[in-house]
Amino acid sequence: MKALALTVLRPLVPMALLCAGLAQAGTVQVDFDHPERYADAGTAREAERVRQVIDQHLQALGQTKLPAGQTLKVTITDIDLAGEVHRWMGPLHDVRIMGRGVDWPVIELQYALRDGERILAQGSERVADMAYLMRSTALRVNERLPYEQRMLSAWFDRRFGTAPAH
């Protein structure tokens, strides 16, 4: 009977260890400083959703890429989404056009990475992707803010390294 129990449980051990590691991953706290002043965070009815997507994306990066016990505080000070909004048919039919002039995504932020009370890294940055239309087209079509998410992922990896080994 013990042999049968070990045979059944043995494959579950790596999954349990992986889940335990994820449960103890780092955390990210995102604040938005004066969002009413942002250069372009979408239309008035989109702005809250834009902030939610950025917040969720940064939190997910922290959970998968920061070691347990580390906390990253990010304060977004400006957002300028990829493309430009054109109101050809009034405010109910906003169309975002990509690739016409200076329209790459830019997010200005301040950050502080801590391990307990110890500050590991801090600074202010202007994160931008001037070549956002030339990069891989493997973006998910239905994903919200694909250029901004890709840009933030690349910044996160450059600034804080890749996922720790679990």
Summarize the structure.
Helix content is 33%, strand content 27%. The protein is of the alpha+beta class and 166 residues long.
H/E element string? HHEHEEEEEH
Profile the largest sheet.
Answer: 4 strands, mixed
- What number of domains? 1
Question: Which overall shape is indicated by the principal axes computed on the Cα atoms?
Answer: globular
Number of helices: 4
Indicate the percent of residues in helices: 25-40%
Strand order of the largest sheet: 1-2-5-6
DSSP strand tally: 6
How far apart the termini lie comes to: 32 Å
Tell me the β content: 25-35%
- The assigned structural class equals alpha+beta
- The average pLDDT score comes to 81
Task: Detail the poorly predicted runs.
Answer: 4-24
Round the Cα radius of gyration to an integer and report it: 20 Å
Please outline the helices and strands:
Layout: H1 2-9, H2 12-23, E1 27-32, H3 47-65, E2 70-80, E3 84-86, E4 95-97, E5 106-115, E6 118-128, H4 146-160
Parallel strand pairs: 1-2
Antiparallel strand pairs: 2-5, 3-4, 5-6
Helix pairs in contact: 3-4
Question: Could you please describe the fold and organization of this structure?
Answer:
The structure is a single chain. The chain has 166 residues and is an alpha+beta fold. It has one domain (26-160). Helices cover 33% and strands 27% of the residues. It is built from four helices and six strands. It has helices at residues 2-9, 12-23, 47-65, 146-160, and strands spanning 27-32, 70-80, 84-86, 95-97, 106-115, 118-128. The strands form two sheets. The chain has a four-stranded mixed sheet with strand order 1-2-5-6, with helices on one face. The two termini are 32 Å apart. Residues 4-24 have low confidence and may be disordered.
